[in-house]
Amino acid sequence: METKTELASTINVSPLTCIDLANSDVHQSGVSLKQACMDCGFFYVINHGISEELKDEVFEQSRKFFALPLEDKMKVLRNETHRGYSPALEQNQIHGDHNKESFFMGTEGTGEEPHGDNKFYRPNTWPDSDALPGWRETMEKYHQEALVCKAIARIMALALDMDESYFGTSEMVGNPIAYMRLLHYEGMSDPSRGIYGCGSHTDHGMMTLLATDSVMGLQICKDKDVKLQKWEYVRSVKGAYIVNLGDVMERWSNGLFKSTLHRVLGNGQDRYSIPFFVSPSHDCVVECLPTCQSKNNPSKYPAIRCSTYLTQRYKESHVSLSTK
């Protein structure tokens, strides 16, 4: 929950570590990443392999969808598996979200795969191709390209003193739950009235790869447990992605790595962003890594199956549309 405004302040722009995925010295990258994950859980990645042309096209297609009449967007209303369109004010108001609409899509399974009928791998809901030609194809291509998160996971393993391939198994991110969300913010935020583009929260999964436009709005709070919270803006850097850790990674690392509180403030301008959420396979049991616990530092979190944990978190952060 957001703290009262008189107990919070916003300070300048946060300087973030930049991780070069083309760096041949992966152990050096691991050292840099470890420090960044302990400090604030947010960092940039460059040389990620996703073309600027593709990213620009995804943003353009996102704008086209949100520019449709509301009645057309409501034809692809979010279903029970969280895929599809969410209108403004749909997300649970415990976060104070206002004037934010979104479109959710994820990994699709097939009946031939072991998890093909699992709710985390159900078919996506797509807008009418006549109204938005090429829209689905662009989104599917970007979803595949954004799995560069697997390369980040290899460096993450080194940062945690594990084997580089540790997170690459099919139970981990070799076969991940991967959602992408198109977001459109508009209007002004007013923290004094509890009104935000997106209220303070942490992400549920392992990590999030975030693409943003040039409109400022994202803020982070590096220490979520202090009474006087200090918020810092995060800049969008051309050619770089913002990456932040989620709660699953904090559990894996026994709290060593931070799942950092963040929010979005609207400034009256339209703002678009595309977070890509990566979690381990639904069958993965998330428990403290052996390198993150000892006799004097026992595990702080009980083991839990990833699908169980994510289901709990989704229920906490979304309202049922059938009740509206």
The beta-strand count equals 15
Number of domains as seen in the coordinates: 1
Number of helices: 7
Average pLDDT over all residues: 88
CATH structural architecture? Sandwich
How far the N terminus sits from the C terminus, by CA atoms, comes to 23 Å
Which percent range fits the helix content?
A: 10-25%
Strand count, sense and closure of the main sheet?
8 strands, mixed
Q: What is the CATH topology assignment?
A: Jelly Rolls
Q: What does the radius of gyration come to?
A: 19 Å
- Element pattern in H and E: EEHEHHEEHHEEEEEEHEEEEH
Give the CATH class. Answer: Mainly Beta
The CATH superfamily name is B-lactam Antibiotic, Isopenicillin N Synthase, Chain
Shape: globular
Proportion of residues in β-strands: 15-25%
Question: Low-confidence stretches at least 5 residues in length (pLDDT < 50)?
Answer: 1-7, 320-324
Strand order of the largest sheet: 2-3-11-8-13-6-5-4
Topology at a glance:
Layout: E1 8-13, E2 18-20, H1 26-39, E3 42-46, H2 52-66, H3 70-73, E4 84-86, E5 100-106, H4 135-145, H5 149-159, E6 177-185, E7 198-201, E8 207-212, E9 218-221, E10 229-233, E11 241-245, H6 247-252, E12 261-264, E13 271-279, E14 285-286, E15 304-305, H7 306-317
Parallel strand pairs: 1-10, 2-3
Antiparallel strand pairs: 3-11, 4-5, 5-6, 6-13, 7-12, 8-11, 8-13, 9-10, 9-12, 14-15
